[in-house]
Amino acid sequence: MTESDWSRVKDQEPEPAFEFPVKSPCVSVCALNREDICEGCFRSGTEISQWGRLSNAEKKQVLARCRERAVEMKRVWWTD
Prior knowledge:
Blueprint: H1 3-9, H2 45-50, H3 56-72
């Protein structure tokens, strides 16, 4: 591993040997609103189209943004 490779990964958590895939938040209510956010799962159009290519860590980040959007859109009234 070269120095430049190390600088990119040194602060990242190691990938576990096996991890179950993060499940899609799709609830089969597929309708993008004017802000390009799905009314069912709260993902953006880009997040939906890229879901299958994301790592588990990236999917978890998307899910966190979905929760934030659901609260902002007043679809849920609680947070973790």
